[in-house]
Specification:
Layout lengths: L2 H9 L5 E3 L12 E14 L2 E15 L5 H12 L7 E5 L4 E12 L3
Parallel strand pairs: 1-2
Antiparallel strand pairs: 2-3, 3-5, 4-5
Length: 110
């Protein structure tokens, strides 16, 4: 999967979606997605880097742990043969569920 495919998939859900940090106007909307990169792993051949494997955290915020949009995202990933662990936590002070997982994409970061 490429980053462009990842962004297209997330945006196709029709909910607020932001890279890096959520926008103030969307901070109270549920469900919503925030995603960010946290690992760059070089892909090399013959002693040279030719691309990068970038790991993203995808954070999904909602009022319920099995939000229909989260289940749809899981199905979309499964349809692309991407099976990932999805972790869940309840955030008491905002009274929302945070479901999150890691996803690796191939990207040119140079």
């Amino acid at each position: 999967m490429t980053k462009e495919e990842l962004v297209e998939m997330l945006e196709s859900l029709g909910i607020p979606c932001a890279e890096g940090i959520q926008h103030m106007k969307d901070s109270q909307k549920l469900p919503r997605i925030v995603y960010f990169e946290y690992i760059w792993e070089p892909i090399g051949a013959s002693g040279k880097e030719y691309d990068t494997l970038v790991r993203y955290q995808i954070s999904f915020f909602s009022l319920i742990p099995r939000d229909p949009k989260l289940l749809l995202l899981k199905k979309m990933l499964n349809d692309k043969n991407i099976m990932t662990y999805i972790s869940h936590e309840y955030i008491e002070n905002t009274r929302e569920f945070h479901s999150y997982f890691a996803l690796e994409v191939v990207e040119n970061v140079s």
